Predict the 3D structure of the following.
Amino acid sequence: MNKTWNNKAWFMVLPVLLLVAFSAVIPLMTVVNYSVQDTFGNNQFFWNGVSWFSDVLESDRFWQALGRTLLFSGIILTIQIPLGILIALNMPKKGLGVPVCLVLMALPLLIPWNVVGTIWQVFGRVDIGLLGRTLDALGISYNYVNNVFDAWMTLIVMDVWHWTSLVVLLCYAGLVSIPEAYYQAAKIDGASRWAVFRYIQLPKMKRVLLIAFLLRFMDSFMIYTEPFVVTGGGPGNSTTFLSIDLVKMAIGQFDLGPAAAMSIIYFLIILLLSWIFYTVMTSSDEQA
């Protein structure tokens, strides 16, 4: 039986497509335009080819910022994905505890990024911050402004506190969707707790884990507001990630050409890594 496709439905999404084109595609084309041209003001542009791209790729500044960003994303994913799974596994599946836990998990996600940065900036101060004064009272040397290790630890703990809830909620959604019959069959077979997780829960969470992995990678790789508020990219350039370096170049130095080229390279790196992660995880799922 041949199906008749109703293409009139496309007219319903046309306004959305136009909005996306206006808010995303047009600014992107502007950035592309700046990346291949040079200007000396008065709205006069001169063709520059791919010189800005080669300058960025040959710059140690870019590769150092990229290395710091990749390191930060790697640490965040290594901590938040297993931690989110662990918390989701121990959350109640029924009763009054369910809405309480869900609300508590959602609270950090409701706080704006700049507010999160401000909270941890004050929280970590040695003179007035609860964390800073407590560590100082315990005799532990802590100063995220002057110490590189302390600055990194502060940003990592801050991001874990802010975004692990997202992984928890996604994993919890995958867990509650598993039919009770699977657990009953595992109980009859005498399966251990690890076996239930390995052969029942983890396979059923693969889809939501893929979403969690991609969302947390993209967000941690593009992080800007929180480290900018807390450390400003310091001490030195130790927490100057690609996003912060890009803003410094575009706004601080007003080097629009190199900044535009860096932003396109930045975008392509995120797109490429996300595609690799998605391909690897979906291919392993199909093989299983």
About this structure: The mean pLDDT is 88.
